[in-house]
Amino acid sequence: MKKLSARRRHPLAALVVLLFALAATGGLYAALAPAPKAQADDSAQSLAITQGKKLYSVGCATCHGTSGQGSTDGPSLVGVGSAAVDFQVGTGRMPAQQPGAQIPKKKNIYTQAQIDQLAAYIASLGPGPVVPTKDQYSPAGADAAKGGELFRTNCSQCHNFVGRGGALTDGKFAPSLKGVDPKHVYEAMQTGPQNMPSFPDTTMPQDAKADIIAYLHEVDSSSSPNPGGFTLGTIGPVSEGLFAWVFGLGAMIAIAVWMAARTSKAKKS
């Protein structure tokens, strides 16, 4: 005991304890501190949100409010998620030129980097659907036949059975899906823009969305066969019914007139 007490009273005892404490603290920090990459990612995300807020203040706040809370001229953006921003801004629908029954697609005025910044800011206002990855919306490996069944069941009522679009009520319309980026098709199903219902993963799984995109890619291909003959614009029963009335009924009337004329001549002779 006397020897232990003497060691404690040694002049270097306090220094040894201090060094031991510093070493233990450093070891714990090294084990528990965030990784440099995670810190860099957080810094980049914060910068994107800051830049996105600046873009929002210039191009969006007039209608959607200074904090995305919405106004009489535009809905709230809290909780719409980054996918809605990427779709609306990426297709040029937003910012809108003027109010109307439906905002049409137009030329995009933002770069993809700016769209990403806007999306980061809107996503920071509240959780919502996120921008999909390429693996999610790529049609490679998807089942186009199954996608056709899903599309005809859930989408053809408005978009026509091959996605050529169609008219709705009160000046609204379902836009054509010809040539639309697969990512934007996926985002539209996620977010339900304007008059379209949304199809979250709980309603329509990711692989089902990819199947629909594969079907649209198949029917959009110029080399895809058309076993039914003339497509007549592939806009459905309107053009087909018009063809039947104009040419089918017209041919029947012409035949009836010709037969009547022949019968009249035969009676006279």
Structure description:
InterPro entries: bc1_cytC-su (IPR009152), Cyt_c-like_dom (IPR009056), Cyt_c-like_dom_sf (IPR036909), Cytochrome_c_Oxidase_Subunit (IPR050597). It is a single chain. This protein is mainly alpha-helical. Among the domains are: 41-125, Cytochrome Bc1 Complex, Chain D, domain 2, CATH 1.10.760; 134-224, Orthogonal Bundle (Cytochrome Bc1 Complex, Chain D, domain 2). 58% of the residues lie in helices and 1% in strands. It has a two-stranded antiparallel sheet with strand order 1-2. A hairpin with a 5-residue loop joins strand 1 (166-167) and strand 2. The longest helix has 32 residues, at 237-268. The radius of gyration is 32 Å and the shape is elongated. The model has no long low-confidence stretch (mean pLDDT 84).
